[in-house]
Amino acid sequence: MSIPNYLTFFRIFISPIFLLVYLEYETFDISLVTLPYVLLFLLGVSELSDACDGYLARKYNQVTDLGKILDPMADSIYRISVFLTFTLPPIKLPMLLVFIILYRDSVISTLRTICALKGFALAARPSGKLKAVIQAISAFFVILLLIPYSLGYLSLAALHQISTLIVTFTAIYTFFSGCDYIYANRHYIARLLTSKVKPQDQFE
Predict the structure, then answer these.
(1) Angle at which helices 186-194 and 156-184 pack, to 10 degrees?
(2) How many other C-beta atoms can be found within 10 angstroms of the C-beta atom of residue 56?
(3) What string of pLDDT tens digits covers the 204 residues of the chain?
(4) Among 116, 135, 136, 185, which is most buried by a count of CB atoms within 10 Å?
(5) This prediction's pTM
(6) Whole-number Cα distances in Å, 12 to 8, 9, 75, 80, 159
């Protein structure tokens, strides 16, 4: 275990806290006016840990096989947790949009993990990095919308509509980045699909 991997585990740990604060903010003695700022803090800490673990791993030569698999997995867990949280009132995003993000990340994470176990790594794509940035920005904007809503300057209907528009764009680009990732790594994926399974692997 290295410091970057501890940061990655921390990102996984903070994901359910975001959900709990959103749902039970009154239990934690947090007002509706204060809630957006607490959520922004939690999201900011998560994004900062995401930036720091990769930077530290490269700077101190602590890139590990565990980190290569765990880091993108942690990113998917906490970002999907955030968007799933937004399907609940008052934001109430359509579940279909979150399903697109979940499906894309699940497929790519599974392919990346299986290929890593087979001994070859799927190359990262600029579209995938941009996808992460777009998802983070859209999550920040959705939370920012809670500020005028909590102060009575934005109606519930407007909160829902604007949030849906923001995440619709995010879901569309997320789907595109998944297609781009699969197409760019199609030769590796073809090797994975055509590789022979050893007899002992059939029962694992």
Answers:
(1) 70
(2) 17
(3) 678 778 888 888 888 999 999 999 999 999 999 999 999 999 999 989 888 877 777 777 766 666 667 777 888 889 999 999 999 999 999 999 999 999 998 888 888 777 777 776 676 788 988 999 999 999 999 999 999 999 999 999 999 999 999 999 999 999 999 999 999 888 877 877 776 555 444 434
(4) 135
(5) 0.86
(6) 7, 5, 8, 11, 28
